[in-house]
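Batch job 17 of 40 flagged for manual review because the log was empty.
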Amino acid sequence: MSLYDEDIKFPIEIEQYERKIYDLKQLIEISKGLNSTLDYNVLIDSILLTCMGQMQLLKAGIFTHRSIDRQEFVLHRNYKGFEIDHKHEYLIPANSKLIQFLDANFRCYTLNELKELLPDEPSLETFLKLDPSLIVPLKGKGTLNGIIVLAERINQKGFSESDKEYMLNIASLAGIAIQNAYLYELATTDMMTKLKIHHYFQTALIEEREKSLKSSLPLSLIMMDIDHFKNFNDTYGHSCGDMVLKNVASVISSSVRQSDIAARYGGEEFSVILPHTDINEAFKVAERVRISVQKSYVLFKRKKLGVTVSLGITQFNPAIDISTKNIIERADKALYISKEQGRNRTTVLLSDK
């Protein structure tokens, strides 16, 4: 090889190394971003936006476990760009051949590749409805914990091998971040009701009070209690009481917003923190919960059992609430008034007098 040839190749090698260095720097920044939150929904959003930005995409979605105790994979609601048929559930069974295959083979796939590798696999129908260009498994602690689906590059090009390698690097970081968020979710969730535990509630309320002070945006709190809960345990047994708790918790979860923080305060008492919400809006949320619980019932040994709740609500007042203890005590006092006045009602209390 002549000196002239070496002079021609040298700048190309430099360019390749610079590209690799740039990619590594990007991955470090991506890793910092993904590990900056343990909030599951915020993390999913961050993963999808990262993929879209890095790969110049118009569509991105992610399949994650349905819940802590349900391992089937469902399309997370934070998907971007895909036109979804809301009558159809985008679900992949945990014991499907597709999940087993992706768990054992960590690489990027096109839909056509998976159809060839897994002919007649029924769970691929879920992907067919989305028509993704690239399917990327996510793994944390050696276990599959998600599947990214990507489609429609802005430049309308396909994915090169280097693109796929880069996506796998992002997937490795995302898989670890999801695993960490999942473990945090386990540690902060009441396993019976699937609501947040008491300690998480106390910490969250302190944080939301500080945010409200800085932003001057309203903050409200709902405290609620299941009416005559002891009667369920005494008459039908604790298994019935557990069903009542789960039923009420499910109604609460479906009645509040994603930004609200619902928790099991203790025993049969629940709480909901409502950021950026004044007392009038909080009353609407409380009444929505109360009415929904009243309309629901628990089916125990072929018997329909009606359930009601009493609620107390208040709004954070910077002039008098020197700590979160004041807010909780006032909402709890409002709850007590609801019980004193006949139960199955909502009481508003704005001052300690």
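Reviewer: the log was empty due to a logging misconfiguration, but the result itself is present. The longest strand covers residues 57-67. Unflagging and moving on to job 18.
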